[in-house]
């Protein structure tokens, strides 16, 4: 399986020949650099202070890297729908996906109060540090939250501008834009369902799945696959198969992220461990754990995982982890991830994509879910 680390790759030259998913990611890194340079220059023309404090931080954050999974999934959709030849529109769509991801992460960190992202201070934390260093007036946290919201908004503006330009230049622009418009609405809906569930103390498994689907699965895999396929003029049958494959893979990705959020190593994830538990974010893992605790009569585990405790100390978080392991929730989620990954590969095979593309999709699903194709019984 090929790796996609956080280091920015060197440009790979012309992109009008046969591309693999890794080639596409490298080419998108190069295109992303060009787009960010152009946007930063425009921001300086608008206002130097805004460019330094906001646009500069957006470009730095995006350049920090990431998995670039959405770009690679867009390539899979494009190839599965028969895409070949000039990949310029695909690359620019990939850049737009990376920018909208930056928007989502910056806003998410503000809403969750997360101090770290990609192993570095989150944007709002960095802005609070700037406030203190400059000895500005007022609470640093309030200023930083407001400024970070603007930074996320700017990333979304850049993404929308780029996607609109790409759609206007494509014969399949209307379908591309419809997918993009749907994705943006789903992201906002999912984020609201997330914060609403926390505020309301909800615990249902169905609610957790709805949040995971809207907030992550759709814009991580399903919509990128459909965006790529739209650029190749995909028919309805191919799009349906890709959407089904993407929803399953996206859910597997989110469930893996839930496990890492509760039990992961911060040195590997780049995020604090246990934040989801500390804030009692309604994840599928938490919902399953609570359901199993109640079904087995494990009142201690049910109390630890329930919505009653407000201030969650390190000790409380450890009790929650122990409850999730004791009830068997971890195992249930692991099994569900494996099932979703296998189902995703079966749906993708239904597109009729050639074996090489299926193998690359399987590698991506493995990277997203942590489940090797051999474990699913669906190795391409």
Question: How are the SSEs ordered, and which strands pair?
Answer:
Layout: H1 21-46, H2 48-63, H3 69-80, H4 88-112, E1 116-117, E2 120-121, H5 123-133, H6 140-168, H7 173-200, H8 205-231, H9 236-263, H10 266-269, H11 275-278, H12 284-296, H13 299-305, H14 314-326, H15 329-349, H16 355-369, H17 373-376
Antiparallel strand pairs: 1-2
Short description:
This protein is mostly helical. The chain contains 17 helices and 2 strands. Strand 1 and strand 2 (120-121) form a beta hairpin.
Question: What does the model show?
Answer:
With 380 residues, this protein is mostly helical. It has one domain (21-370): Orthogonal Bundle (Farnesyl Diphosphate Synthase). The protein contains 17 helices and two strands. Strands 1-2 form a two-stranded antiparallel ribbon. A hairpin with a 2-residue loop joins strand 1 (116-117) and strand 2. Helix 1 (21-46) packs across helix 3 (69-80), helix 9 (236-263) packs antiparallel against helix 15 (329-349) and helix 13 crosses helix 14. The longest helix has 29 residues, at 140-168. The protein starts with 20 loop residues before the first helix and ends with a helix. It is an enzyme of class 2 (transferase). Its EC number is 2.5.1.-. InterPro entries: Isoprenoid_synthase_dom_sf, Polyprenyl_synt, Polyprenyl_synt_CS.
């Amino acid at each position: 399986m090929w790796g996609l680390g956080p280091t920015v790759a060197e440009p790979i030259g012309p992109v009008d020949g046969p591309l693999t998913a890794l080639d596409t990611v490298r080419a998108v890194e190069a295109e992303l650099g060009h787009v960010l340079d152009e946007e930063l220059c425009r921001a300086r023309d608008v206002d130097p202070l805004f460019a330094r404090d906001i646009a500069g931080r957006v470009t730095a954050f995006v350049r920090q890297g990431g998995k670039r999974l959405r770009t690679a999934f867009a390539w899979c959709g494009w190839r599965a729908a028969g895409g070949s030849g000039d990949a310029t529109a695909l690359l620019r769509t990939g850049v737009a996906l990376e920018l909208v991801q930056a928007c989502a992460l910056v806003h998410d960190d503000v809403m969750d109060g997360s101090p770290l992202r990609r192993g570095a201070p989150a944007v709002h934390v960095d802005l609070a540090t700037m406030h203190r260093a400059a000895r500005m007036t007022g609470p640093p946290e309030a200023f930083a939250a407001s400024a970070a919201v603007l930074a996320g908004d700017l990333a979304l503006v850049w993404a929308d501008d780029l996607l609109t330009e790409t759609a206007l230049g494509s014969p399949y622009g209307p379908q591309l834009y419809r997918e993009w418009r749907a994705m943006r609405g789903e992201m906002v809906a999912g984020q609201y369902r997330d914060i609403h569930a926390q505020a309301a103390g909800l615990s249902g498994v169905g609610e957790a799945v709805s949040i995971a689907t809207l907030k992550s699965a759709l814009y991580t895999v399903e919509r990128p696959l459909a965006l790529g396929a739209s650029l190749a003029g995909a028919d309805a049958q191919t799009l349906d198969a890709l959407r089904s494959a993407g929803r399953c893979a996206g859910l597997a990705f989110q469930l893996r992220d839930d496990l890492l959020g509760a039990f992961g190593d911060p040195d590997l994830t780049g995020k604090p461990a246990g934040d989801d538990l500390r804030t009692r974010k309604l994840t599928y893992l938490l919902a399953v754990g609570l359901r199993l605790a109640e079904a087995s009569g494990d009142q201690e585990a049910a109390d630890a995982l329930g919505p009653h405790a407000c201030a969650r100390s390190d000790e409380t978080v450890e009790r929650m982890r122990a409850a999730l392991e004791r009830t068997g929730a971890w195992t249930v989620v692991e099994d569900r991830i494996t099932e979703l990954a296998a189902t995703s590969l079966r749906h993708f095979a239904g597109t009729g994509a050639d074996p090489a593309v299926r193998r690359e999709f399987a590698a991506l699903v493995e990277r997203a879910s942590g489940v090797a194709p051999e474990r699913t019984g669906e190795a391409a």
